[in-house]
Design goal:
1 helix; disordered N terminus; mainly beta; five-stranded antiparallel β-sheet; 178 residues; single chain; 31% strand; three-stranded antiparallel β-sheet
């Protein structure tokens, strides 16, 4: 019996370790250590920025897949140290409430309307928030300390027939120097 006890204990220890390794209650922490950090602004504001879209008529969003109210906003960085080569900074946008089409769902009283984020002021490339990835944009030349890039946002109605009301949505962002 005494000889069997270490075998049972050893087996139980191995099995409990395997169960722990396959556990779904694991928290993963990630961070980034860089050569530098920069101060970030949105439209010149470094705290709680708000981008105001124009007031539009619901008739501009009557058709399926219609968009209107293209509005640019500027992400800027300053206080950076750029030595011998250009620093390419990427922005990761993370929607707090994302639709199945990858746009921002709104919490306002208007219906059948979403907000689309776009990679630049031309409005040609939509940022898919359902598959978050860093978007290129801010470029700081060697020897400079600041840079900026214009992104855009617009109203979008996937099904058409948008109703009148206010439109409110939020997105978080992270800046990557890698």
């Amino acid at each position: 019996m005494k000889a069997l006890l270490p075998v049972v204990f050893g087996t139980a220890t191995l099995l409990s370790g395997a169960a722990f390794a396959e556990s779904t209650n694991t928290i993963t922490f990630k961070g980034e250590i860089t050569e530098q950090t920069c101060s970030v602004t949105v439209n010149g504001s470094d705290a709680h920025p708000v981008v105001l879209l124009p007031t539009i008529s619901k008739s501009e969003l009557k058709d399926a897949a219609s968009s209107a109210g293209l509005t640019t906003f500027t992400m800027g960085v300053s206080g950076c140290s750029v030595d011998s080569s250009t620093l390419e900074i990427k922005t990761l946008f993370i929607g707090t409430n994302v639709t199945s089409s990858g746009n921002l769902a709104t919490s306002g009283s208007a219906n059948n309307v979403e907000l689309q984020l776009l990679t630049d002021a031309s409005g040609s490339t939509v940022i898919d928030l359902s598959n978050p990835m860093a978007v290129a944009g801010i470029s700081i030349p060697a020897g400079e300390q600041s840079g900026e890039h214009d992104y855009a946002v617009r109203y979008f109605s996937p099904t058409g027939n948008a109703t009148a009301g206010d439109v409110v949505a939020a997105v978080q962002y992270a800046i990557s120097y890698l």
